[in-house]
Write a structure and sequence with these properties.
Structural class: mainly beta
Radius of gyration: 11 Å
Strand order of the largest sheet: 3-2-1-4-5
Low-confidence stretches: none
Distance between the termini: 5 Å
Shape: globular
Largest sheet: 5 strands, antiparallel
Strand content: 35-45%
Number of helices: 1
Length: 71
């Protein structure tokens, strides 16, 4: 799974309750892996409609856009 604009493999989502709180992740072997500083109790649910942001450039869209190719 890569950003369709810059090719970055790291992304983030915003906390629905606090838009300034973000959670970085990448997808390895079909599994979403959050950065180690995110505790299990804080991990947000990511679904097809979750707004997802590239960690390197200004790209953002629904998570389903990134997974269309089956990565």
């Amino acid at each position: 799974m890569k950003c369709p604009v810059c090719g970055c493999i790291k992304f983030y989502v915003k906390d629905p309750a606090d838009e300034y709180e973000t959670y970085e992740f990448e997808r390895r072997n079909g599994v979403i892996c959050f950065d180690s500083d995110v505790s299990d109790s804080e991990i947000p649910e990511i679904g097809k409609e979750t707004e997802t942001y590239c960690n390197r450039c200004a790209w953002h869209d629904k998570f389903k856009i990134l997974t269309k190719k089956g990565d």
